[in-house]
Amino acid sequence: MAAVDKSSATIRTAVLSDIDRIAAIEREVMSPAIYPAFFFRQALSIFGDGFLVAMLNGRPCGYLIIGQHNGDASIAEIYSVAVSSESRGAGLGRALLDAAFVWAKSRDVKTITLTVSPENAPAIGLYKSIGFREIERDEDYYGPGEARYILTAVV
Ligand SMILES: CC(C)(COP(=O)(O)OP(=O)(O)OC[C@H]1O[C@@H](n2cnc3c(N)ncnc32)[C@H](O)[C@@H]1OP(=O)(O)O)[C@@H](O)C(=O)NCCC(=O)NCCS
What range(s) does the N-acetyltransferase domain occupy (predicted)? Predict the structure, then answer.
């Protein structure tokens, strides 16, 4: 794995010119890709500044999407978070989650929820280290025999 210079990492709101790169990260890390490129284009308008990008050496290397629930704005959900393989283990995932909590606090969100596969040890490790706790296991969520955990954290 190439060395990653953490000092040059920053988190900012996504812009149109990030979309191709973010869609490429999605294709690289999610197999099969969960979201098509067009979803990310739409997410710019839907999620606004809840669509965050981790920049490393001037290049998008990860992203996170968070939005408030319809009907209960005290709950926000993280819809996706991913970091490109060559930039992992350098704190970008944690920095994206920290930025999501800052985003949530500024909107008076009280609880953040997300969904994760029980097999996804790196993501579960990250979420638990930040304070997320499992509240439910939902069988067949991703397809037959593919469960999800629902995790929640207090903001
Ligand atoms: C989950 C993911 C975003 C983590 O990104 P990252 O930039 O490598 O994470 P960080 O470097 O910030 O690591 C933060 C913490 O995550 C946990 N973690 C990271 N990699 C881990 C691994 N391989 N095994 C167990 N825990 C791990 C650790 O608690 C770590 O804290 P530490 O560095 O203090 O030990 C990244 O692995 C990823 O993109 N995975 C593929 C996409 C995905 O599964 N997204 C989540 C869908 S729910």
Answer: 9-154
The count of domains in the chain is 1
* Residue nearest to ligand 1 atom 5, measured at CA: 93
pTM of whole model > 0.90? yes
User: In this predicted model, what pLDDT tens digit does every residue of 40-83 receive, in sequence order?
Assistant: 999 999 999 999 999 998 999 999 999 999 999 999 999 999 99
Query: The CATH number of the domain where 93 resides is what?
Result: 3.40.630.30
Contact (Cβ atoms closer than 8 angstroms) between residue 91 and residue 62: no
Residues 6+ apart with CB under 8 A from 16: 41, 44
Length of the chain, in residues: 155
CA of 25 to the centre of ligand 1 (A): 15
Residue 80, number of CB atoms within 10 A of its CB: 19
